[in-house]
Structures are given as C-alpha cells and as structure tokens.
C-alpha cells in the first residue's frame, strides 16, 4: 500500500526556544547534523524512504524545510521531484508570530491554538481546510497507484511541527485539536498509511522515527 512520510525539519533556534510561526529562519548546526545522521538510516535504496517509490515531495518554502529536504536525499544522488508549496507551511500565528508560550499567556491567559486559532493569522477552520486540501492531494496520488495509473506510490512532506501534528490528526479523520497529544520532534519521520489495504481506512503507522539517534 502507498504511504505518506511526514518529516519535520531539523532543529532551529525557534524550536529550541518554543517559538513558532512563518518567519524564515535557518537550521542550527545541530539541526543540519540531525538530518545528516538520520538520512542514511532511513532514506535510500531499499530503506524506508526509497527514492524509487516516491512520486512527489511537498516541501514548505521556508529555508529550514527546504534545506532539510535536500539534506535528506543528498547522499543518494537521487533528488526526487518536489514541489515548493505554501500549502505545507507552518501555522500562521498572526499577532502571536515568534512569541513564546509564556509571552502569549501574558496577553491571553486562556488561549489555546488548538481551540482558538491565531488572531490576525489562521483560524482552526483555516488550518483544517488547508491541511484537508493537502490530504486530498496525497490521496489522489495514492488512488492513482492503486488503480495502476502510476508505478510510484509514496509521497513525502517536509514541513513543520504544528503543521505535521494537524496533518496527522486530520489524516486519521479526527478534529485538528487531537494534534495537541502528538509530539513531533525536529528531524523526525512519521509514517501514515492505511489499514486492511483500504484507502477508506487511513492509519498512523509510525511516529517520531529517527529521534532515538539524536
């Protein structure tokens, strides 16, 4: 059965400090090292993420994700077809862009992104609709494989912590707020697939692969 591999970019200063948003910040040296250690173990011929099976990669345009993508496949010499798309960018924090949780709590003590969304940014409904659009795109690729239209089956998304948590929640057809219960570490891989060989039974197959080597 086809799969969706969801990769979070490597460490940044913001992921260290608990800041979130759309600002274009680079990987730290540690973030680069994380991806370089992980990639040869999980990406390559005969490995979990095998370039021969990949039909496309959706990559957030932010440099932390774009660089992570290239580092993932650098050692293989086989950079797969990829699409830079704002559809997989991080949650737009609006007025809370770049603020730490403690700083937001001073402004709005009862605020929870999973219930309230972001003032001046994306609401819960906005984020749900954006992620659902990405899932529909992925499932169309998977459907084409099942129907024999294409021979390559897997999709990879290289994106961000909150985006990935929302994606996992929506993939298994729960509300977005389930994402608060998922821990998605920097430079980790999640595997989404299907139960009983059925596209009607989406499933979470693996979470936080690769974190044990960090």
Number of helices: 7
Provide the CATH top-level class. Answer: Alpha Beta
CATH third-tier fold name: Rossmann fold
Helix proportion of residues, in percent?
Answer: 25-40%
Q: What is the number of strand segments?
A: 6
Low-confidence region ranges? none
Q: What is the mean predicted local confidence, pLDDT?
A: 95
Backbone shape:
globular
Radius of gyration: 17 Å
Widest sheet: strand ordering = 3-2-4-1-5-6
Query: Which class best fits the helix and strand makeup?
Result: alpha/beta
State the domain count: 1
The CATH architecture is 3-Layer(aba) Sandwich
Q: Write the H/E string, N to C.
A: EHHEHEHHHEHEE
**End-to-end distance:** 29 Å
CATH H-level superfamily: Phosphoglycerate mutase-like
Q: Which strand-content bin applies to the residues?
A: 15-25%
Oligomer: single chain
Summarize the structure in words.
- It comes from Galerina marginata (strain CBS 339.88).
- This protein is α/β, with parallel strands linked by helices.
- It has one domain (3-209): Rossmann fold, CATH 3.40.50.
- Helices cover 36% and strands 16% of the residues.
- It contains 7 helices and 6 strands, in the order E-H-H-E-H-E-H-H-H-E-H-E-E.
- The protein has helices at residues 13-17, 29-42, 63-74, 101-107, 113-116, 124-146, 161-171, and strands spanning 4-8, 54-59, 82-84, 154-159, 189-194, 202-209.
- It has a 6-stranded mixed β-sheet with strand order 3-2-4-1-5-6.
- Helix 2 packs across helix 3 and helix 6 packs across helix 7 (161-171).
- It is globular.
